[in-house]
Design a protein that fits this description.
By secondary structure, this protein is of the alpha/beta class. Helix content is 49%, strand content 13%.
Length: 283
């Protein structure tokens, strides 16, 4: 990254999310005195056992522009001593991407027919986080919970399994009966699987947001979330990895039903970010 920055000499560098590459890019730019903008700033799970949490905090504190997806995220940044004039509540670019691509996905994807499943007659699951898939007990409990959901509702649970998770399932010798394991799918297919699922079970932060935007109920296979807004508006429930609690949260999600507002913006986050870094809203 440093070599590219030295060669290109950009005025600013944008990083999005909480991966290792985000932190690496932010650090490289900051050390070269290039302005850094962090998209999705201010997200906190307050769980430092998660590598992503360390990446978020460090990236935020070496950034010059902090693009918070929600007012709550902006408040968190200011409470950590980050100057108020560097914090901008823009909404989340995930809304932009979803609004721009969902119709394309509906036209192009054939994933439902390929899997021979009907809209609203299946569940979708994802689990990839290290704290879940590298822990035999937690991964076993997740699979048991998914099987319980499939058995209780007599509908399939489709799990596009990450290669690392599949490796762990095989290493641990875990039983996947009752869960439909499929290869990872592309973005369009995954949007369709989310959009038409009855409910999504996941340990992904991005999927928590996407289901909330799509109006699909979500049960999160974690003990905490850096997207508390999804819980507060009623789109999401935290189940942890206990198999009985997973099923109970699914049942409760259906019982409370209802619609919720999308707390992540109107799909113009990218425009706002560009306006800010080019000076349109930054004096």
């Amino acid at each position: 990254v440093e070599e590219i920055l030295l060669r290109r000499k950009p005025d600013s560098v944008l990083v999005q999310g909480d991966t290792n590459s985000v932190l690496g890019g932010a650090l490289a730019a900051a050390k070269l005195h290039i302005k850094v903008g962090h998209v999705e700033a201010g997200l906190r799970s307050y769980d430092k056992t998660m590598p992503e949490e360390i990446n978020r905090v460090l990236t935020d504190h070496c950034s010059d522009y902090l693009f918070a997806p929600t007012e709550q995220a902006g408040t968190i940044l200011k409470s950590e001593g980050i100057p108020e004039n560097t914090v901008f509540v823009t909404g989340n670019t995930i809304v932009d991407a979803l609004y721009q691509n969902i119709e394309i996905a509906r036209r192009k994807s054939t994933i439902l027919s390929t899997l021979d499943i009907q809209p609203s007659r299946y569940f979708l699951a994802t689990a990839h986080r290290q704290e879940n898939v590298d822990n035999r007990e937690r991964l076993t409990s997740i699979l048991n919970g998914l099987r319980s959901v499939a058995d209780f509702y007599h509908q399939p649970v489709v799990y596009p399994v990450h290669p690392h998770a599949l490796t762990r399932i095989k290493e641990f010798g875990l039983d996947t009966a009752g869960v439909v394991l499929i290869d990872p799918v592309d973005y369009f297919d995954f949007l369709i699987l989310q959009n038409y699922s009855r409910l999504v079970l996941t340990d992904s932060g991005g999927v928590q947001e996407e289901t909330c935007i799509l109006g699909v109920p979500c049960v999160t296979l974690r003990d905490n979330t850096e997207r508390p807004e999804t819980v507060e508006v009623g789109a999401n429930m935290l189940a942890g990895t206990d198999s009985e609690n997973i099923l109970e949260c699914v049942r409760l999600s259906f019982e409370r039903g209802g619609r919720w507002r999308n707390p992540f913006g109107d799909g113009t986050a990218a425009e706002k970010i560009v306006d800010i870094i080019t000076g349109g809203s930054n004096g």
